[in-house]
Amino acid sequence: MKIQSATIFITKIPFRKTFSHSAKVRKTSESIIIRLPTETGIVGYGEGSPRFYVTGEKIRTSVKYIEKVLWPKISSTEYSDIKFGGDPIKALDQIKNSLPNHKTKGVIAWHSAIAAVELAVIDCLLKQQKKSLSDLLKPKRQIITYSGVIGLGSIEDSEILAKKYKALGIKQIKIKIGYNDEQKRIEKIRNILGSACSIRLDVNGAFTVKKAIETLP
Question: Which of 104, 148, 175, 213 could make an SS bond with 165 (beta carbons 3.0 to 4.6 A apart)?
Answer without folding.
Answer: 148
